[in-house]
Automatic annotation (TrEMBL):
Source organism per UniProt: Chromohalobacter marismortui
Protein name: Iron complex transport system permease protein
GO cellular component, one term: plasma membrane
Topological relation to the membrane, as annotated: Multi-pass membrane protein
Superkingdom as given in the UniProt entry: Bacteria
Molecular-function GO term, any one: transmembrane transporter activity
A single BP term in Gene Ontology: siderophore-iron import into cell
Transmembrane annotation, as ranges: 31-50, 85-103, 115-138, 144-164, 176-197, 217-236, 266-290, 305-325, 332-353
Pfam family, any one: FecCD
Family of this protein: Belongs to the binding-protein-dependent transport system permease family. FecCD subfamily.
Gene3D superfamilies in the cross-refs: ABC transporter involved in vitamin B12 uptake, BtuC (1.10.3470.10)
InterPro entries: ABC_BtuC-like, ABC_transptr_permease_BtuC
């Protein structure tokens, strides 16, 4: 009679194969993250090297690691002028990509991002009020009226979307449609502002909405970096729950996750990321859409790898965009928002028209 004893070695062998496969998968994903980090560092060095006074990569590396070996002029140009701009590209790219990644996770929609849900449009409207008419939503904040206006309007937009989503019968698809409606509302209000504003104010509003890294400063960089450093651990703390959310609300609830509570908390955090980024550099679209999808293709849905991967992909895309903005037309720095839109629009159309929905 068969006792089943001989099945134990086969079960142990299968378990060992499973552990080996998992370890190799983890190592592969760690190597992917390391490769992204290396590519990001190379892009940063290239960005620092380009400009009216070009430097070699060797001179850039010397200025970074042994600044005493380069001239005073090179140190001033690289550290005081170019470094804040180059690092702001990394921080803003990472912030927008992480915001888009988590919006796609909590809404289970591949088209969700700060740009498509109207948060960026709300921030642009707040900044336009200050640029065109000098309106300060918080009257005491005179020195930073433009970024504060943008931040407040972005947060109000996010909360409006959330409050509307709390109504009975509202689905995740409805939330996305609400975001698209917000985009049209704010675009109409922006057109109204430009109609009544002076010619000089209109030029300022239009340039701001194109997105530009050129006005980045060390204080602005530290604020944006501080917000990113604060939000990332809070999102990582919910890593397991966010991974479970990809299985659907019902399955996540059966695993002990509270989808509505988690969705609200994550929405507030990602709105903060997007608002700060847009407040300092203007409207930069499609980073929050493209970055997460590249990270998902490379690293999968596990938030332990997907979250840092989305940050690295977004930072890399915007850093490469910064490089392209300097080299496409020699002697001219193209607004970064134009570059990201040229890259993002074809990708957006591909997502809309594609029938490959296996990952969603």
């Amino acid at each position: 009679m068969h006792t089943g004893v001989d099945t134990v070695p086969s079960e142990q062998s299968a378990a060992e194969e499973g552990r080996t496969f998992y370890r190799s998968l983890v190592v592969r994903r760690q190597l992917t993250l390391a490769a992204l980090a290396l590519a990001l560092f190379l892009s940063l060095c290239t960005d620092l090297a380009l400009g009216p006074a070009p430097f070699s990569i060797g001179e850039v590396l010397a200025a970074l690691f042994t600044p005493e070996d380069v001239s005073q002029q090179a140190r001033v140009i690289l550290w005081e002028i170019r470094m804040p701009v180059a690092l702001m590209a990394l921080v803003v790219g990472a912030s927008l990509s992480v915001a888009g990644a988590q919006m796609q996770t909590i809404l289970s929609n591949p088209l969700a991002s700060p740009f498509t849900l109207g948060i960026s449009a709300g921030a642009s409207f707040g900044a336009a009020l200050a640029l065109a008419f000098g309106v300060a939503i918080i009257p005491t904040a005179v020195d930073y009226v433009i970024p504060i206006n943008a931040f407040v309007m972005a947060m109000l937009t996010a909360f409006a979307i959330h409050l509307l989503s709390m109504r009975r019968g509202v689905t995740i698809e409805t939330i996305v449609l609400l975001g698209i409606a917000m985009v049209f509302i704010f675009n109409s209000l922006m057109a109204l502002i430009q109609f009544f504003a002076s010619q000089q104010a209109v030029a300022a509003v239009v340039f701001w909405t194109m997105g530009s890294l050129t006005k980045a400063t060390w204080p602005k960089l530290w604020i944006a970096l501080g917000v990113l450093a604060m939000v990332m651990p809070l999102l990582a703390r919910h890593g397991w729950a966010l991974t479970a959310m990809r299985l659907g609300d019902a399955k996540a609830e059966s695993l002990g996750v509270k989808p509505r509570t988690l969705r609200l908390e994550v929405l507030v955090l990602v709105s903060l990321l997007a608002a700060i980024a847009v407040a300092f550099v203007g409207t930069i679209g499609f980073i929050g859409l493209v970055g997460p999808h590249i990270a998902r293709l490379l690293l999968g849905e596990d938030q332990r790898f997907f979250l840092p991967g989305a940050a690295l992909c977004g930072a890399l895309i915007l850093s490469i965009g910064s490089v392209l903005s300097k080299v496409l037309i020699p002697g001219t720095i193209i607004p970064i928002g134009i570059i990201t839109s040229l890259v993002g629009i074809p990708f957006f159309l591909f997502l809309v028209l594609s029938n490959k929905k296996a990952s969603w």
